[in-house]
Amino acid sequence: MSTPPSSPAPMSYKNTPNRSVSVRGVTFAYRRLGPDNGVPLILLNHLSAVLDNWDPRVVNGLAARRPVITFDNRGVGASGGSTPDTIEAMARDTVLFIRALGYDRVDLLGLSMGGFIAQVIAAEEPGLVRKLILAGTGPAGGPGIDKVTSLTIKDTTKAALTRKDPKQYLFFTDTAGGRRAARAFLDRLKERTNDRDKAISLSSFRAQLKAIHHWGRRAPADLSLIHQPVLVANGESDRMVPSVNTVDLAARLPQGQLEPLYPDAGHGGIFQYHARFVPRALEFLEP
């Protein structure tokens, strides 16, 4: 692993400075926080997400003991270039980004679409990845994944009509507890007030939707190729990537470990249950 940046890394995501690195002529925006030493944990984001869509309770909790790096995919937020329309191309970009930072051994936390990307990297670059955490995600060809586009459009339209954030519908259950968790999560996303990232463009959003749709229509992947230890987590009522995919992943991965599904929680289960998820993730990531 390369020598980390010489300046001390910040410990709070709300004031972590934006950085950038050039990868084959394309600028990738990222943030790094946590201790200087240790295997870095790379966070791979969900559909339409930018740097400011990571729950600071999750990032800060993980960064208390691990170097944590978040970044914008190519063409997303503050990163340059055009957004790829396949998961495999996004995975190649991620590998190039990691190596541009000088790392040759990392852990991955992939959420939703980020979990698709993490699976490809783990299979194709086994020497690069030590451990994986897959949250709110599923294998290629998993049931319901090809419905993400229609569900996203439906709930985004509903959110616009009700003046709500789409994540309230897409990430959380429509129960009293789910609505409380959604409000708390959305409030946490507003904690950073300076140097915020810009929203994803419509063209990049469409490219990501196309990539997810194709992933959902693919033939099932051979998950036996992923030999690394994998922690799999989700809410019990995920509408975007149905929770049956989480159970399937844990069963088919040679070293899969299933975190008991979070009750009354959906796609954003690790955010809703951050107080439970973070300690479990840190325990799993121990050498």
From TrEMBL:
Domain AB hydrolase-1: 40-271
Superkingdom of origin organism: Bacteria
Keyword Hydrolase recorded: yes
Gene Ontology molecular functions: hydrolase activity
Keywords noted in UniProt: Hydrolase
The keyword Iron is assigned to this record: no
UniProt protein name: Alpha/beta hydrolase
Originating organism: Streptomyces caelestis
